[in-house]
Each structure stands twice: as C-alpha cells, then as structure tokens.
Amino acid sequence: MTPTTRRNLLIGGVFIAIGVVLLLIRDWMPPPVTLISVILVAVGLLFVAISTFQIPGAGDTSAILDERVLKIRAHTFSKAFSFSFTVVCILGILDFSGLLTLPSRTVIKFIFLTMGLSALFLSWHYNRQGDIDAG
Amino acid sequence: MITRIKDYRTRRSLTQEDLARAVGVRRETIVFLEQGKYNPSLKLAHDVARVLGVTIDELFIFDDDSPSP
Questions:
Q1: Does A59 touch chain B (CB under 8 A)?
Q2: What is the mean pLDDT of residues B33-46?
Q3: Is B2-61 assigned to CATH 3.40.630.10?
Q4: pTM (two decimals)
C-alpha cells in the first residue's frame, strides 16, 4: 500500500466518522447538518472506494496506471467535456430562442448526466477497443 | 500494424504478466500490443524491445503503404 493510498483511506475514514457523528447529533443541530453529514459520508466512502481499488494484489499489474490507461482517460475526459459542452450549447440555443425554459438546476443535471454517461460509455468503448483509435 | 511480440515473448518463456511487470504496464496493454490494437509510445516500444532482446523494427511491422510524413 502506497503512502498516498494510506492517506486517502485515512481521509475517507475521518470524513465518514465526522459524518456519522453529525448524523447522530442532528437533533441538537441546525437543519443543514443532515445534508452536510450525508455529503461527508458520501465523500468518505468515495475516498475509501478509490483507495481500495488502488491497493494492488501480489503480482498483479492491473493497478498500474500505464500510458494506455492514461491516454484513454485523458481522451475520454476531453471527449466527454466536448460532448457536454455541445449539449449545453444546444440547450442554450433552445432557451434563448424561447422553445424551452430551463431552470439552472435542470441545466446542472444535464451537465452531470451527459458528462458522466458519455465518460462512462467512452471509457468502456476505448478500453474494449484497446486504444483511442482502432488498429 | 503487425507485432511479433508474442513470438519473441514465448521464445523467451515469458508470460504476458512477466513482460508487463518488466516494462511497467498492465497485462491488458501487452494483450492489446500483441493483437496490434494498441500503438505504443516510442519509450514503451523501446522497453519491450529491450526486454525481449530485439530491435523495435523486428517487433513492429507496419503494413501501411502510405508514405510516412
């Protein structure tokens, strides 16, 4: 286990612990404390999950971030951003033209959805293909 | 692109995992390299060639007829 993984596990544990404590004392605290505690626990779990995936097994090379993985990751993020930007532009055009009235919360949801889903799909596609361009 | 990585690797009785560990990449990368689906960086090509004791030219054969830029 690398020092970074150990540190991330510790951070995750601290976040979860604070979140749980806040959740237990929420009756004596102002209302936003429930939301804060849920966010803290979620972030803590995320840290723990990421750290767990980074712990390599004996003789296992799957945890290595090699050039192919980094190349695919960079390309995926770039493409996902471009796709999300295009979607937001289209939504903007629809909004400005009066065809659609979009509250900011909906736009934020669209951005999260398009970026997340396109990144997931592209990552799966490129990993299946082996490289960002076939052959 | 055709690669002869598998030939040279088996001649040296190396597994994909051994080669991956020797050049510092994932086993999947070696799989895609052997299938000719991944275009490696010059450094990775050099590292693989060095581990297998051959030159890069011997490992990678490009069947592209178009002139290089």
A1: yes
A2: 92
A3: no
A4: 0.64
What integer is the mean pLDDT of A36-47? 85
Is the separation of the CB atoms in B5 and B52 below 8 Å?
yes
CB pairs under 8 A between A and B: 50
d(CA A67, CA A73) in angstroms, rounded, equals 10
Write the residue in B27, B35, B41 that is nearest to A67 by C-beta: B41
Which one of A59, A62, A68 has the shortest CB-CB distance to B38? A68
Q: Which of B5, B23, B26, B51 to mutate to test the interface with A (most CBs of A within 10 A)?
A: B26
Chain centroid, CA A52 distance in Å: 16
At residue B62, φ and ψ (nearest 5 deg) are -95, 125
Q: What is the interface pTM, i.e. ipTM, of the complex?
A: 0.79
Please work out, in degrees rounded to the nearest 5, the angle formed at the alpha carbon of residue A43 by the alpha carbons of A37 and A49: 135
> Are the beta carbons of B16 and B31 closer than 8 angstroms?
yes
> A98 in contact with B at a CB cutoff of 8 Å?
no
Domain ranges of chain B: 2-61
Strands (E), B1-69: 2-3, 60-61
Q: Which of B37-50 are b and which e, b meaning 16 or more Cβ less than 10 Å from the residue's Cβ?
A: bbbbeeebbebbbe
